[in-house]
Amino acid sequence: MNKDRQIVSELRNFFTENGCGLGLQRIMNVLDSINITERQMAFEKKPNSKFTCRQVIQMMILFPFFSVKNAANYRISPLQSLFDCHKDMFYRVLSNENIDWRRILYYVNRKLATSISVRSDARNSDTPICMIVDDTDMPKTGRRGEMLGRVYSHVGNRGSILGHKGLFLCRTDGRTQMLVDFTLLGEEGRIASRPQGLCKKDIDARYSKPRYPESKVEKRRSEYFTDKIANAKKMLNRAVVDKLSFDYLLVDSWFTCKEMVRYIRRRGSKSHLLGMIKMGKTKYMIDGNEMTATAIASAMTKKKSVKYSRAHKYHYFEADALLAGAPVKLFFYRFGRKGEWKALLSTNTALTPYKAYQIYSMRWSIEVSFHECKSLLNLGKCQCRDFGSQIASISLNVLQYNLLSYVKRFESYETIGGLFKEITAQTIELSITEKIWGLIQEIVSTIAKLFSTDFDELLTNIINENKQLNAMMRVVQKLQTAA
Questions:
Q1: pLDDT per position in the chain (483 positions), as tens?
Q2: Hey, what's the torsion of the CAs at 57, 59, 64, 66, to 10 degrees?
Q3: Do residues 357 and 272 both lie within one domain?
Q4: Domain assignment of residue 216, yes or no
Q5: DSSP character for 361?
Q6: In the chain, how many domains are there?
Q7: Which of 362, 380, 401 is the endpoint of a domain?
Q8: Which domain does 457 fall in, by range?
Q9: What is the pTM of this model?
Q10: Cα gap 111→103, rounded to integer Å
Q11: What is the rounded CA–CA span in Å between residue 114 and residue 256?
Q12: 271 and 350 belong to one structural domain
C-alpha cells in the first residue's frame, strides 16, 4: 500500500462499484471531504511509516462500520484484506502525545455544522440551537489504568465505581445533535490516606509515564481534577471561539447555580441559560423576600395562582425572581394533583411556561447520544492503560457518532441505530463473501487432487456454470486488487 494513495477514496470507489447502500457511501464522501492535514492537526509524519497519521486516523474512524471493536481485532476484519497492517500501528497513534484530538474534533465539527446550516430545513427552522452540558459514567474493570480511581455514580444508587467521569458538550438544533467537546474527570476522594478512594497498593500498580509539560496529553491531564463548572465554561468558550454559537444552554439541576447564571449573563443577550433547579436550600429573591423553591411552590399554591393546561396535562405557574443579582424567571410544573413540583430556571424572562418546557425537553438528546455511543460505538470501553489512548479512543467515538448523526440528517434515516445496522450489514456481507470463497477454493483444490485434475481448469469450469460463484469471484478479486 502506497502512503500517497487515498484510503477513503479507494474504499468509496470499491463499495460504490459493488452496489453499496447510500449510508456507507455518504460516510465515505463526508470523511473524504474532511481534509485532515498534518500541519492543521499538529502532528508529524514519520518518513519510514507505512501509512501517514491521517490515513491511520481515517481507518480507525471506520472501525465500527466494519465491525472492528478495537485495534487488536483489525487482523480478522474486512479492512485487513484492503489495507495490510498490524495493530501496533494503531496503538502508536492512539498513544501519540502530540496529536491534538480536541483540535481535530472542532475542525471536523465546524465543517459538519457549516454544511448543515446552509440547508433549507435549518435556515427556515424556528427551533433554537442549544448547547447541552452533562456527564456520564465510564466504568472500568482493570485497576492499572493511568489516573484511574473511584468516582461517584448517580445511576441506580450504585455509589462509587472504578472508572472516570466523562463531561461532554453537545450541540443540537432539534434534528441533529453533535458531541462538540469532552473532558475526562476524576475525584480526589474525601479521605487523605486513600486518594481517589484507592489504597496505596492500587495507586502504585497504576500505569504512569513521564511527559513533557507542553504535550497535548499533559494538558488534558491537568483538567482531570478541575471541577465540572470550570470545565464546562472552558468548553463553552472554546465552542464560541470556533464559531459554534448557541441560543440556549440546557443543564440539569447540578449545573444550575449562581456561577453559571453569572457566566451566561456576561455573554450579554445572545444566549440564555435554561436549567432544572433543585427543590433545595438555594434562595431566590422574590418581591423583596428570599425564598427557597419549595417555599415559592407552597406560597403560590396557597394563593391559588396555579393554572392547569388541558393541552399538556400539567399544573403550572411562573414567577419573576433574582439570582446572583440577575433577573431570572422560574417555571414550576406538576403532573397530577398529588405530584411533586419540578422547576426550571431561565435567564430569558420573556419565555412562556410552555416554550420553556418545550426547549428544555431537547436536553434529553444528550442522554440519547450517550446511549447510542455506548451501545453502538463502545464509548468508554477502551482497554488501554495510557491516559492519552483513552482520550484518543473517546475522540474517535465522538467523530464516529457525529458522522452518523450527519448522515442521518441528510439521508433521512429514522434512527442512528438503524443507519449503523445497515452500514455494518453491508461490510459484514463482504467479509463473509471472502471467507466463503476461501472455503470453495479449498474444496475445489481437494477434489482436483483426488481426481488428478488441474485446479485452475476445474475452478474455471465450475465458475462458468454458476453465475453466483462468478459474481463472488469478481468481488474477491476487487478486494485483492485494492489491497
A1: 344 445 455 555 545 544 455 666 777 777 777 776 665 555 555 555 677 788 888 888 888 887 788 888 888 777 776 677 788 889 988 999 888 999 999 999 998 999 888 888 788 888 999 999 999 999 998 889 999 999 998 876 678 899 999 999 999 998 889 999 999 999 998 888 899 999 999 999 999 988 888 899 999 999 999 999 999 999 999 999 998 989 999 999 999 999 999 999 887 668 999 999 999 899 999 988 999 999 999 999 888 889 999 888 899 999 999 998 899 999 999 988 788 999 999 999 999 999 999 999 999 999 989 999 998 899 999 989 999 999 999 999 999 999 888 888 777 655 676 667 666 665 544 444 444 445 555 666 666 666 666 656 655 665 555 555 455 455 545 544 544
A2: 180
A3: yes
A4: no
A5: G
A6: 2
A7: 362
A8: 426-482
A9: 0.83
A10: 13
A11: 30
A12: yes
Enumerate the β-bridge partners of residue 130. 172, 248
Does residue 281 form part of some domain?
yes
- Contact assessment for residue 347 and residue 328, using Cβ atoms and an 8 Å cutoff: yes
CB 260 within 8 A of CB 371: no
Quick check: is 101 in a domain?
no
Q: Which of 347, 362, 377 is the last residue of a domain?
A: 362
List C-alpha distances in Å: 10 to 2, 252, 385, 432, 476.
12, 45, 34, 20, 15
Alpha-carbon gap, residue 357 to 367, rounded angstroms: 17
In a domain? residue 104: no
**Residue 248 falls in which region: left (phi positive, over 0), alpha (psi -120 to 50) or beta:** beta
For 255, the grid coordinates are 449545573
Which grid cell sits at 445? 483444490
Which amino acid, one-letter code, is at 7?
I
Q: List, as one string, the DSSP characters of 214-260.
A: TSHHHHHHTTTTS-HHHHHHHHHHHHHHTT---SEEEE-TTT-SHHH
